[in-house]
Design goal:
Elements (H helix, E strand, L loop, with lengths): L10 H13 L10 E2 L2 E9 L3 E8 L5 E7 L6 H16 L8 E6 L5 E6 L3 E3 H10 L6 H20 L2 E2 L8 E4 L4 E3 L6 E2 L33 H16 L10 H10 L5 H4 L7 H8 L11 H12 L7
Antiparallel strand pairs: 1-2, 2-3, 3-4, 4-6, 5-6, 7-9, 8-11, 9-10
Helix pairs in contact: 4-5, 4-9, 8-9
Length: 312
């Protein structure tokens, strides 16, 4: 027996759906469209404020990544953040920070950022691939992948630039070899006026330093990147993050501010016992007790692991 036709949604619901559709982010660009001198090939990422496309530079024929704000985005702060992101990356030219080519506007006023197109996968996917094969990232690979990131962060910090969202998803591993530090959208630059309001927490919970949870901009300095780098190293060596956000964020915040630092040696008995002293300093609650620079953190780690019989 044929089923009766499905009735249309009530008018009240139709109205809600229409308003939601109208409020949804409009495409920042379409395939084949021209954004400045760049022809859009395909969308490769999307967020609430914009989208990222693979495009081609029609002047040179080279592929680029094109970050374009959605047409409905007109907020001055969002536009300023994108311009600051371009400025930060330009200040780090010659490091492993992703290269920026241009930050400009279309004739209709859409802001766009043209960057180096990256072919590969992020560090999270790299870690996941090793773990899917019941392996950990070899110590030699940890060093190869993170050393350029450390050098880039050190230069950034010396120039007053704090990444503020350091995590495996923002470290890109190139197919051709090498790594790139990406996504400076949340960066803080001490030479520029403060954008983040009091009470705002920026970053990804598992990688946020204890002092950053206070929401006080004056407490944010380069040592939050030192803490985040320590979490990344812990994750790569152990297969887990030192503190894991659960259902109740407040409990997590209390834990990272009060709980003893976890033992990496207990998770990796093949590593020297001194690795736990390194963890205690890398993830110290008080920033004054933490390694004061990424170079100091890295140099100490290399010294601890230098005689390790762990995987190569």
């Amino acid at each position: 027996m044929a089923l009766p036709p499905k009735p249309p949604p009530p008018r009240s619901l139709q109205s809600v759906l229409q308003r939601a559709a109208a409020a949804a982010p409009k495409s920042a660009a379409t395939q084949g469209a021209m954004v400045g001198r760049y022809r859009v090939l395909e969308e490769i990422g999307r967020g609430g404020h914009g989208a990222v496309f693979k495009a081609v530079d029609t002047d040179t024929g080279a592929p680029v990544a094109l970050k374009v704000l959605h047409g409905h985005v007109t907020g001055d702060q969002l536009r300023l953040r994108m311009k600051r992101e371009a400025y930060a990356m330009s200040q780090l030219a010659g490091t492993c920070a992703v290269s920026v080519y241009e930050c400009s506007e279309t004739s209709s006023g859409q802001l766009y950022l043209a960057m180096e197109f990256l072919d590969g996968r992020d560090l999270k996917a790299e870690i996941d691939a090793h773990e899917a094969a019941a392996q950990r990232v070899p110590l030699s690979a940890v060093r190869q992948l993170l050393e350029p990131i450390v050098d880039t962060l050190q230069i950034a910090h010396e120039r007053g630039i704090i990444h503020r969202d350091l995590k495996p998803e923002n470290i890109f591993v190139l197919k051709a070899g090498g790594v790139r530090l990406v996504d400076f959208g949340l960066m803080k630059d001490h030479s520029l006026a403060q954008l983040t309001a009091v009470g705002t927490i920026a970053g990804s919970p598992a990688y946020i330093a204890p002092e950053a949870w206070a929401g006080v901009p004056e407490l944010i300095d380069h040592r939050i990147d030192v803490y985040a780098l320590g979490v990344i190293v812990f994750r790569m060596l152990s297969g887990v993050r030192p503190f894991e956000p659960g259902e109740h964020l407040l409990d997590f915040i209390v834990e990272i501010g009060r709980a003893p630092r976890p033992s990496l040696h207990a998770l990796r008995p093949d590593l020297p016992s001194a690795i736990d002293e390194w963890v205690a300093r890398a993830l110290a609650v008080k920033r004054e007790a933490r390694f004061q620079t990424v170079l100091e953190l890295w140099g100490s780690l290399v010294a601890v692991l230098g005689g390790s019989g762990g995987p190569r």
